[in-house]
Each structure stands twice: as structure tokens, then as C-alpha cells.
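Why do we care about 3D structure at all? Because function follows from shape, and shape follows, mostly, from sequence. That is the central idea of this module. The next example makes it concrete: a single protein chain, its amino acid sequence, and then its structure expressed as C-alpha cells.
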Amino acid sequence: MPRKKKNYFKRQEGAPDPIVVSINRRVNFSEVDIMGIVWYGRYAAYFEEGSAELGRCCNLSYKDFYNANLRAVIAECHIDYYESLHLGEEFTIKTLLVWHAGSRINTEYQLIKGDGNLAAAGYTIRLLTDINGRVCVVSPPLLTNCRRRWKRGDFFE
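And the structure:
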């Protein structure tokens, strides 16, 4: 079994704390196999749900990217599995946007069971590209504006 990691991305000194969003959920019938266990490929979809909610929270949603003529392309996705989720089980998708100064988005995820145990954890790295697929070398205004608000503390309660 993989060792549990505290963080997937190194926290940069002087950078603001990660932006954190949590979604409470229940495992649906369509997400499990014949044994009532969540299919392993579904965990990436749970990560995506968390990512979408985080994007809505800090103006980095797919619609925001589209309106800015940008795309946020998955360059890496990693999942560590610890305990299975089961049909009807309640769990929380915890999503963290981790500071990075480049033109990419580092996101960490935790799927936390109702009893507090970790079901799975992982991360994604998204590269920002223009609509023709060229990687943005310089952070686009959409990301620069998000970082400015992040430093100001707009995303923390």
C-alpha cells in the first residue's frame, strides 16, 4: 500500500496558503461495480468535481478559461488509493490549489470517508495553453488576476 503523503507539491516560502474547497457527497449506484465498490477510474472523476468547484470559487472555471481563449490541459494526474469507497457511503472531496508562479495549475485532492479515514489522495498538473494548443510561457491575465486576489486573501474566510 502506498505511503500517505502530507503534500504532493512543495510549498514555496512566502507563498500564500493553498486555496481549499470541500464538497460533501454520497457514492451513487452508477459509480460502483457489482460488489458495491467504487470503480477505480471513478476517483479521477471525483477529483474533477473538486477541481470544478475550486474553479468556480476562484474564477478559474472552464467557462472562465473559454472566455479568456485559454485551455487548462491535464499534463499529469496521479492517484494513491488507501481504502475503498462503497455504495451509499458519504465522503468529502477536499481540493487544494497550491501556489505556483508559472503558467500552470497545481491541485491536490483528498477523498475523506465519513469516519475520517483517507480513501484516496492525488494531484493534477494543468498547463495553460492558447486555443491553438501552444503552451503559455507567461502567465495569462486570468491566472495573474487570481494570484493577485489570492495574495490579498480574497479566497480565505
